[in-house]
């Protein structure tokens, strides 16, 4: 997942693309939990210092970056990961609506927009926030090495 034109989109893994580096800010994790007691986090783009946000909280709303005040709890940028739904992959949903999940709109391809969508059990809604457990300046902030979506599949030239 990377940032293009201020929006979150899918992209082939490229460690040199600074916009593919994310921080999982866990500072709200002890006080905000979902109904299954999974902790809250903000997914902050390392290059921009801005978190992913879904201001409207409506289905099909694109995931965008917004200014960040880490001392203010803004529900539009707080996320939760669900239980394991398939081979270590989880849903990433809003703190105030477990029914709206990150979704790679129309499939797992380069430049696919990330939006909110109701859970429909598709590979395009299964995420793996790979965490090398590298702590940065605080036990509440973790660097994410990469973000994967769906199950690992053979490449057909276009599919990620």
TrEMBL record:
CDD domains: beta-trefoil_Ricin_AtEULS3-like
Source organism, top-level taxon: Eukaryota
PANTHER family: RICIN B-LIKE LECTIN EULS3 (PTHR31257), RICIN B-LIKE LECTIN R40G3 (PTHR31257:SF11)
Stated name of the protein: Uncharacterized protein
Source organism of this protein record: Miscanthus lutarioriparius
Higher taxonomy: Eukaryota, Viridiplantae, Streptophyta, Embryophyta, Tracheophyta
């Amino acid at each position: 997942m990377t940032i293009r034109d201020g929006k979150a989109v899918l992209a082939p893994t490229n460690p040199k693309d600074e916009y593919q580096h994310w921080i999982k800010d866990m500072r709200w994790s002890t006080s905000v939990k979902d109904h299954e007691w999974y902790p809250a986090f903000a997914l902050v783009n390392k290059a921009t210092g801005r978190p992913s946000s879904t201001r409207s909280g409506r289905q099909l709303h694109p995931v965008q970056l917004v200014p960040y005040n880490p001392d203010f709890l803004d529900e539009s940028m707080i996320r939760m990961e669900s239980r394991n739904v398939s081979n270590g992959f989880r849903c990433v949903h809003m703190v105030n609506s477990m029914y709206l999940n990150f979704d790679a709109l129309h499939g797992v391809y380069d430049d696919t927009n990330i939006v909110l969508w109701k859970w429909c059990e598709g590979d395009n809604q299964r995420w793996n926030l790979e965490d090398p457990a590298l702590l940065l300046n605080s036990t509440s902030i973790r660097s994410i090495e990469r973000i994967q979506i769906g199950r690992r599949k053979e490449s057909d030239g276009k599919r990620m």
